[in-house]
């Protein structure tokens, strides 16, 4: 196997969002000329993947470097670390300048948090998205391994989503201490009561991996089944890296031809378009459920533009509160929002308690789940992505409950990192004695803290009474 240079979008959450992996160190820039660029490298590999199942009739954040606390999903970026990696400072300045120009010309953009209405009005307060300046060599064999795992994980998510008893039983203790998970389970229970079936199930997932330095194994950090962001901007970073290496690759000793193509955006769009066709109403729209202040709107608009230009599919953007105000459920289950029939509900929000500040948002979520629109994800798919379910699936003999192929099961088990709940007293004791072997992460997604246990033993002991909210994961050496 050869080596691929992997182009990865680095979000504001210390996490890469492209087909492969970026360098684990910071890139370099001259602080006097570029005081606020957001270039980062982080050792995480994330694979965007799509899954469409029609039944009526297919690269997480673990802390690196010296950062001790990070934020999941779309949080605030830390200040850039300056490390030139032995590259001439003048060359770095040229690359930074060219990269900023390229980002502006090609739409590698987000809204500037410091500019009012930058998350509401397109074109206001645009700034380049944080990204790695250069790609990092990454073993091609591990890239191919992650690529081959994607359809197996998709199948697993789908099958687990159909086992309502497994989901309810596995999360029964979690819901007692986590009000958010409890509300999700209540919606799930209501769907069971009315015998709601999802004949067409669409998943746009992102699986996060890291390489463990000690074992040299590719290990999964988590599977994201809701609001897997940055397929649009991530593809642009691959193009940016390829362009930079076309100009500077000879000086850097890097070959642009070794940067693989990243088709995440087109694959997401193809999956959405195929599901839209299955809904079978050419006048229906795809509803993007978004935040009231959406600084990452351009990543989403890339998908909307590709849907319209390539498939003549229209999209509608609404917040949960707006859906509650405008949404109507027809007697036959049809969802109508703003006077338009909805074929697909595509969630780019809804993964965290902060997304539901009032009962209005919860009413909207229930309304959409009750409808005949295709949900991406459905409430069942959403629950499969919780850390507790990930932990349950890693237990002996559980995968066999959902998958038949022994080779597929072996492939999944090979990439599982250790994951334990805080309700295991023996593991708690071991973590306190050897905190460097673990990280602590929450049950929920989005906007919450996770900790490296060497600096969080006090935190861990303080939340022991809320043990089911947190899970300890093997600390991978990088």
Automatic annotation (TrEMBL):
**Residue ranges of domain Glutathione synthase substrate-binding in the record:** 284-384
Q: Which GO terms describe its cellular component?
A: cytosol
Q: Which Pfam families match?
A: GSH_synth_ATP (PF03917), GSH_synthase (PF03199)
State the Gene Ontology terms under molecular function: ATP binding; glutathione binding; glutathione synthase activity
Q: Which NCBIfam families match?
A: glut_syn_euk
Q: What is the protein's given name?
A: Glutathione synthase substrate-binding domain-containing protein
